[in-house]
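WARN retry 2 of 3 for item q-0093 after timeout on previous attempt; input resubmitted unchanged.
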Amino acid sequence: MEAKAHPGPSAADLERPLKVEQLIARNREWAKEMAEAYPGFFGSLVKQQNPEILWIGCSDSRVPANELMKLLPGEVFVHRNIANIVHTADLNSHSVIQYAVDVLKVRHIIVCGHYNCGGVAAALTNNQYGLVDHWIRSIKDVYVQHEQDLAHLSDQERLDRMVEINVERSVAAVAGSTIVQNAWARGQVIEIHGWCYRLADGRIKELGCDIKGLEDLKGVLRVAKSLKAGSPTKPGN
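OK item q-0093 returned
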């Protein structure tokens, strides 16, 4: 089924501050519109979810996974956190990955960051933000390690490049997990993709750091080498 554009007013058109009653009313409108546009849609959702995609993205409200790929509810299994980080010791993200791989049998794992990411921007400063400082520490460590290599870039280019590097690192972390490697070893088809979303025009940029199997694990080394320097990738179509 092809997803249709969201009808009706946006949150900006509603009374401020927002009231819960407004949101419940909008839910009723949405459910009615979906049932009319896609007869039997909710009945199919009740039976099971069968997504082919695991989306690992940022919690930013401006980056909605389903909508920007024009997909319906039930077509994407979604995990989001600040700055789309995959830590090797993070039980949350790895539990999601395990369920997606072992139970849902997804074929694609997409790590998608976005330019002008506040989490990455925070990691490039010496400011303290509280608990989130611990979460973004890995980004800060990479930045400190390669700060001189990135010094020739403008502030915006440096932020853009670090957004990309952060995605590349998370792609490598997913590929290096025992969950994914074991799945590849038993012949399961899983492709891992690294993307960045541009808020300015709504387009996705493929970063070229895809890893598609055990034979492609050299891609992890290629990703590691790519962290050293370079300008952010040029915008694509």
